[in-house]
Structure formats: C-alpha cells, structure tokens
Amino acid sequence: MAHPADIPAGTLRRTTLAAAVGNTVETYDYAVYGFLATVLAKVFFPASSPTTALLSSFAVFGSAFLARPAGSLVFGPLADRLGRRPALVASLLLMATVSTLIGVLPSTATIGIAAPVLLVLLRFAQGLAAGGEFTTAIIYVAEFAPPHRRGALSSRVQVGSLAGLLIGAVVVLFLNAELTREQMLAWGWRVPFLLALPLGAIGLYLRSRFGETPEFLAARSETSAQDANVNDLWARVLLLVGVSVLHVIGFYMTYTYVQSYLIQLGLSPFTATSVIAFALLIGLFLVIAGGRVSDRKGRPTALLATSLTVLMITYPLFAVLSTAPSLWLVILCTVLLSAGPAFYSGIAPITYVQLIPVRMRGRTVSVSYNIAVAALGGSAVFICQALIELTGDKRSPAYLLLAAAAASAIAAFALTRRATQHAQPSPSPVSLSAKAGS
Q: Major facilitator superfamily (MFS) profile domain: from which residue to which, for each copy (predicted)?
C-alpha cells in the first residue's frame, strides 16, 4: 500500500486531473444554466413579466441546490463504504445524463406547463449528482497528496470548477456572437447542455483508470473505534459550515449572478459574459495561489486574511459598478469583486477535508458542505435580485457578500485559536507535580 509521500509525481498529476475534469463537468452544467437564465426565462416562463420570469428562472436554478443534501446522503456514505472512486464515477454519470436530457427538453410553447415541471425535476436530479461530486473529488485528491502539498493539489479541483464556468461562458459567448436572439430562443440554448455528454465521457474515462486513495485503504483496514471517538465532531462541523459561507456565496454570486447583474446595468449579453469570462481566467490563477499560500502560511491565517479583505473592498466596488461606468471600470470592478472569493476557494476545500477524520470524511464533509450550499448557494442569485427589486438600490447585493465575509471571518478566527491551542504542548507530569508541590 503506497504512502501519499511515495506516490510518483506523474500519478499525482493524472489523479488530480481525473478529479478536476469531473468537477469541471458538474460546474459547467450549473454555469450554462446561470449564463442562459435570461433566455431560459423566456423559453419556460413566456407568459410572465420579464422580472417575474427572471426570478422564476433563478428559482429553478436554486432547486438543484435543494437536492444537494439528499445527494450527499447517497454519495457521502457510498464514498465511506465502497470507496471514493465509485462515488465519483456514479455522480459524474448521473450529472452528464441529466444535463443531456435538459438539452432535449421541449419548451413551454410545445408541451405547456409540463416543460417547467420537467425542468425542475431534471435540475433536482442535477443537484443529487452535485451532492456527491465536489466534496468527494476534493477528498480523493487530498488523500493522495503528500501533506506539504495538499492545499496546492486540492486547489486544482476548484480550478476545475472555475474551468467549468469558463467553458460555459465561452460556449455561451460563441452562441451569442453567432446566433440571433430568435435562434437562441428557438434552439441555441440547447447546445451547451448537449455538450455535457462528450465532456462527461472524457471525465468517466479518466476516473475509471485510477484506484482508491492510500488513506482510505489504510483507514478501512483499521478498527472503527479509532475515529469514532471524536468528542468535538459537532464543533468541527460548525467550523466547516462557517468556513463554507464565503466560499459558497462568493463563488456563485460573483461568477453566476454578476453576469445577469451586468446585463441589467445595460451591457449586452455578449459583453457581460465576456467580462465574467475574463474574471474567471484571472480567478484560475488566484485559486492556485490560494492553495499554495495555505500550505505555507496555514489554512486559518489565509482564510481570515482573505475574509477581512473581502469585507473591506466589497461595498466600494459595488458602489462603482452600480453606476454602470466605462467598460474598463466594469471589468476592473468585476475582477476585483471576484478575486477574494476565488483566492478563498483555493483554501476552503482542503480545510473541510482536514477537519474531519478519514473514516467519516465522505459523509460528514459531503452532508455539511451541501447543506450550506443548499441554504446559501441556490438562494444567493435569487436574494441578490430580490434585494434590488425590494430596495431599488443597485448596490444592495453587496450586503449579502459582506454578511458572508463576516460569518467566515468569525469561523476563520475560531480556527486560528483552535490551531494555536492544539499547537501548545500539554504540561508534562513532572511540571504538574512541581506546580502542585510549590
């Protein structure tokens, strides 16, 4: 049985790629729905007013997030009992299949109310698949990686997430450039979903070539009592959820909602998607940087510093962005707005993994994280839009990101104190005796 430190570099690269590509497919499927929200609103909710249709489209977007905890209850225990790889293969197969079915779904004009109903059901199935995909992929890579590189290598799975968003943005950009508005409404919106099939096939091929992680195999051969006696498991779960707040809200808000936000500010869909694509490109490097910094400076310190930075810059950036300034200022504000969440998302996932013992890692990390995603990720785009509709203030989405940064800063501070306490050696019996006799 190989120890993580003894695994060849080439095997580590291929293993990381296999995990990241599958996560790319998952995020791509989520991304294209978000980028096509304004189009899908007219395809599936044609009788509603533009505002109501867009909110309905965002609500369907959120339905997939509600299914993620249910998916984690399936794929999390599967990862702990049968192994990480079977769970990864099953979740990717389900995701690719469901996305293809969305691509061939008849519109409301064709089959009436059945169309949005089926769309909700398929999005729910996507959520089931996503409930086991991201966390298991992170665990898979972390359990292969040597201790001093776990942050850097695990961040590559998050890079896969941004790559999925970037691919989705590029595909939508190309379609908006080549097709008329009428063609996009008629059939163009289907193309991105149908592309999930070949992407999924590539991911399945890569994942089928690798075995189980060394840590999982070692833990399976040990007695279960060793990891079961975790007195502070609930404290660990609360810390995990706290850390995830900025990760989840920041990721979906800056890379999904902001595209629709820019369109509402008057940018064309092509221009708005181009801005997000550029921000995603920058974000790829920031995610990698976050993982590497966490290996050198420690996870809690890096998380706390990033959360505080997001707290300081979010409102001023939204204040400038909401005035719909020049295109260059729009690009600059969007990149800076997404920079903090991107850097943070390179640190948070490995933090989740290392908080939970190996034998209960699959189900605990998956369920905890996906409950946070269901409550926060799916609602983020809806809440941002609802805040604008209720207040009439285009700066109001900033409040959600500020709240997320504050919550995660508190969790990161608690992690910092926890790390400091665990780093302090307990008093020796001799010193205790000396104190007692003095």
A: 15-421
Classify residue 212 by burial, with Cβ atoms within 10 Å: 0-12, 13-18, 19+. middle
Give CATH superfamily name and number for 4-215+233-421: MFS general substrate transporter like domains (1.20.1250.20)
pLDDT digits (tens, 9 = 90+) for 171-188: 988 998 899 989 999 999
User: Percentage of the chain with pLDDT > 70?
Assistant: 91
Tokens standing for residue 51: 């505002």
Cα–Cα distance, 435 to 413 (Å, whole number)? 32
Terminal CA-CA length for the chain: 52
Tens digit of each residue's pLDDT (9 = 90 or more) over 228-239:
445 688 889 999
> Residue 85: which of 210, 220, 258, 244 has the closest Cα?
210
Is-contact 385 150, C-beta < 8 A?
Answer: no
Query: Residue 222 has what DSSP assignment?
Result: S
The pLDDT, as a whole number, for residue 368 is 94
Residue with the larger pLDDT of the pair 157 and 420: 157
Q: Please provide the DSSP assignment of 124-176 as one string.
A: HHHHHHHHHHHHHHHHHHHHHS-GGGHHHHHHHHHHHHHHHHHHHHHHHHHHH
